[in-house]
Structures are given as structure tokens and as C-alpha cells.
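We were asked to recover a plausible sequence for a given structure. The inputs and outputs are reproduced exactly as logged, with field labels preserved.

PROBLEM: sequence recovery
POSITIONS: 124
GIVEN STRUCTURE:
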């Protein structure tokens, strides 16, 4: 079987990597469990296939949505829930002020006396 002279080969390898001595590839250098530097060849990020580094998290909108859904327990403190609570509190304050004005005009005597007492301060 005839094999061509490897000295005559040019261009990248069939897997796309550049031709050259693989022993001269840059090394990972991460600290291993044994305490020494990792000697595996490094990828373009400077670490080997075992020490590629921690994930930096979701990037796409769909991935971020999955993270939010997984982290949301009941949604009671979500932005829209808090806005609804603020609207409700503003409505209650407005109603208390209105009832206080009605009570002042009536000289402290209204037909809605018990309800006014409950809504205007909570003294039962
Ligand atoms: Zn490594």
C-alpha cells in the first residue's frame, strides 16, 4: 500500500484544525484536583474540553423566560402585582377621604355610620 510522503501535505487537517505538531498546542493550565496544572490541549477559550468554565447563564429571551418561570413562586411581588396593589391602596385612600368629607358635611351623623367607622381607620 502506497502512502504519500507526509512532508508534501499542506492545508488544514480533515477535521479543520491547522496542521502542526499537536504536542505544541497551548495547554489548559487549570488547577486539577491533584493540584497540578491541567496538561490537556486548550480550546480557543484557553481551557480544555474538561475545564471549559462555568456557564454564564441564559442569553436568549426564551431562556431568560424559562429562568423567570422557574424562579417565580407565586408572583405576589411581581411588577404587575405590585402595581395592582398600589392602585388598590390609592382607591382605598380616595374612598376614605370621600367618606370623611361626607361625614364632615353631615356633621358627624350619617346613615352609613358603621361602615364609615370601619373604612376610615379600622376602629371597631
Ligand atoms: Zn483542562
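RECOVERED SEQUENCE:
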Amino acid at each position: 500500500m502506497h502512502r504519500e510522503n507526509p512532508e508534501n501535505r499542506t492545508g488544514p487537517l480533515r477535521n479543520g484544525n491547522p496542521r502542526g505538531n499537536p504536542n505544541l498546542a497551548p495547554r489548559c493550565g487549570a488547577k486539577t484536583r491533584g493540584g497540578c496544572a491541567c496538561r490537556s490541549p486548550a480550546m480557543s477559550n484557553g481551557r480544555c474540553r474538561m475545564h471549559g468554565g462555568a456557564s454564564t447563564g441564559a442569553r436568549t429571551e426564551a431562556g431568560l423566560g424559562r429562568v423567570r418561570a422557574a424562579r417565580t413562586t407565586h408572583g405576589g411581588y411581581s411588577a404587575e402585582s405590585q402595581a395592582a396593589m398600589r392602585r388598590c391602596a390609592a382607591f382605598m385612600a380616595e374612598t376614605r377621604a370621600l367618606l370623611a368629607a361626607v361625614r364632615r358635611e353631615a356633621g358627624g351623623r350619617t346613615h352609613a355610620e358603621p361602615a364609615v367607622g370601619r373604612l376610615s381607620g379600622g376602629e371597631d
